[in-house]
Amino acid sequence: TSFFGLTILCDKRALIPRPETEELVAWVSEVVDKPKLIIDLCTGTGCIALALKSVYPGAEVVALDVSIDALALCQENARNVGLEISTVKEDLLAVSDEFMSQRNAYDVIISNPPYIPNHEKSFMNANVLQHEPSLALFVEDSDPILFYKIIIQWAEMHLTHGGFLFFELHEAYSQEVLDFIKGFSFHNVEIRRDLQGKLRMMKAQKV
User: Fold this and answer.
1) To which H or E segment does residue 54 belong?
2) What region does 82 belong to: left with phi over 0, alpha with psi -120 to 50, or beta?
């Protein structure tokens, strides 16, 4: 598929990139000036990481995922489009001490994490359920913003002062994510609607 001017290989190892995610990358490109270090959490195909590398060729870009298969696909895509990024295997739900203790100062942390509650499976198209990995889509009904909570807490420690955090959101839980982030040292927090009019993206800046 085409994503932000890049041709991205897609298969059952990761989600097919959506147009809404291109809108998120475009928002980053509007706001962020000359970042040195970027990390894309839950990278999947690597589409976000690679798109940002194409926008910021001088930046070091890291792509993280729990799935070895997804990271292999990400690396294939990097080779195919001729862009150099780093990949890291890490489970955000069971973060290693080494990863948690890092003191890397990221200028941009971005993520399109799993955010669809399990109970919504019955409303989804069969082709999505059959051909895209559940690991990248679904979260427990009891805490649908779990990944956002983890990432916000990690970003609190690992963003530079003035650095940016960007998320793709589930429109039904955008307010919950907004309420949670208010407990941390971020300002200029903004939620943006996508071209469908859905509350789909968030930007926050580290104080």
Assistant:
1) helix 47-55
2) left
- Note the pLDDT tens digit of each residue in 9-65: 999 888 889 899 999 999 999 999 999 999 999 999 999 999 999 999 999 999 999
Q: Could you tell me if 66 and 114 are in contact, meaning their C-beta atoms sit under 8 angstroms apart?
A: no
Pair of tokens at residue 7: 């041709």
Q: Which structure tokens are listed for 183?
A: 């407990």
Place of tokens 């894309």: 40
pLDDT of residue 141: 62
3-state helix, strand, coil in the chain (%, to 5): 40, 25, 35
Q: How many residues does the chain have?
A: 207
Q: Are strands 138-139 and 86-89 parallel, antiparallel or unpaired?
A: unpaired
Q: Which residue has the tokens 């990139």?
A: 17
